[in-house]
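Hey, quick one: can you model this chain's 3D structure?
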Amino acid sequence: MTVAIDQGPRVTAFVSDVLNGTVARIDINIGDSGAMLLGSSHIIASGYAHRTDPAALVVGPTGLAYDAPHDVLYVASTGDNAVFAVSGALALTHDGGMGRLIYQDNTHLHGPLALALAPNGDLVTANGDAVNPPDPQHSSEIVEFTPGGTFIAQMQVDPAAGAAFGLAFGLSSSGQSQFAAVNDSTNTATVWTLRPSSGN
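Sure thing. Here's the predicted structure for all 200 residues.
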């Protein structure tokens, strides 16, 4: 799930369902009497590969990252071993299918799970290794690529397969950009403070 808009009492969130290969936009109004699901909520994307898996339990659309300035929801579909872009996600009133394929790379993608939008506008995903298993030298990697589909970099979280899990970008208490990645093999999270961009 990713929260797109938090406007006080009204919150919009995107939620993926690995059991049926869909993504929903959920509009909620939070008041004194609790939360109320609004009628503007819709399934906005579908058709993603989904299945049970002996190693991963369930494989389907998992990672979601929302680019608010461009109103694009990015979907990491583990089963499709690809990332898709759903344009106009905040206002869609119908199922737009899978969206536009933006990144499919069997060299670097191995079942993308978590997905995050980096401060520089690139996308970063954690490979769960349940699909298109990598060679042992490239297990549990985090992969960075542009929204246009250009590979940028990769980094291994752990040599054990299936260890790369969650990831997120945020700010430290002093306002510096940070990146966090979860190692599911050791049940730890590592946080890196990012250097300011030099413009290169």
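One thing worth noting: The chain has a mean pLDDT of 90.
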